[in-house]
Amino acid sequence: NVYYYDIVSAYPTIIRGLPCLACGEWRHEEQGDVQADITAGLFHVSWAFRPFLRTWGPLPWRGSSGLTGSPSTGEGWYYPDELKAALDMYPDGSIQVLDAWYYETACDHKPFAFVNDLFKLRAEYKARGGAEQLVLKLGLNSLYGKTAQSTGDKKPYANAVWAGMITAGTRATLLRAIAQAPDDVLSTATD
After folding, report:
1. pTM of the prediction?
2. Chain mean position to CA 80
3. Which terminal residue of the chain, N or C, has fewer Cβ atoms less than 10 Å from its own Cβ?
4. What pLDDT digit, counting tens, does each position of 45-95 carry?
5. Residues sharing a CB contact under 8 Å with residue 92, sequence separation 6 or more, in sequence order
6. What pLDDT band is residue 138 in, cutting at 50, 70 and 90?
7. Using a CB cutoff of 8 Å and minimum separation of 24, what contacts does 28-31 make?
8. CA torsion sign, 41 to 46 to 49 to 55?
C-alpha cells in the first residue's frame, strides 16, 4: 500500500510565527548549542553516518549541480528549527555544531500575526464552498515567495533570513514526519 499525506498551508503555518528582525541583534559563538528557546539563528554543522546505516540523512544538502538530497555525510548552515528536528531524529552525537550565530530579539513583535486571522477567514469561506477562499489561499502562500524573491526591480519584501526560516521550518516538519517511520517513507516534497 502507498499512502499520501499533505500538510495544509505549510508555509503560512511557519510564517505566522516569524520573529521581528528589526528589534534585535546577531551574536556569534564558536561551537554554539542549539538551545530549546533559540528560534532564530544560523548553525554551521557537519555530520557523518556510515553509508546505508540510515534511510534518511539528517539534513538536506544542495550540490554544485543544483540537485538536492539527504546524504549520510555533509556540512552546511542550518536554521534552529531544522537542526533541532535533525538532532531529535539522530541524538547519537553524529551531528556536530561547528559555529553559531544567534539572533536575539528585543521585542515581542510578530510581523506576520495577521496570517492567523486570514487563515480563519479562509476556513470560513472554504466551509461555505466559496471560491474566494482560493484568493486567500494563494495570497497566504505567496508570502513566502515575496520574502524569497531575488529577481526583478521591485523586491521590497525580500528577506533571506525569513525565507530561510520558512523553508527550514517546513523541512523540519517533514523531518519530524519522516522520523515517525523512516524506513517506510519513500518521498517528500514542498511546493
Report:
1. 0.88
2. 9
3. N
4. 999 876 655 567 788 877 778 777 777 788 999 999 999 999 998 888 889
5. none
6. very high
7. 28/99, 28/100, 28/101, 28/102, 29/99, 29/100, 29/101, 29/102, 30/98, 30/99, 30/100, 31/97, 31/98, 31/99, 31/100
8. positive
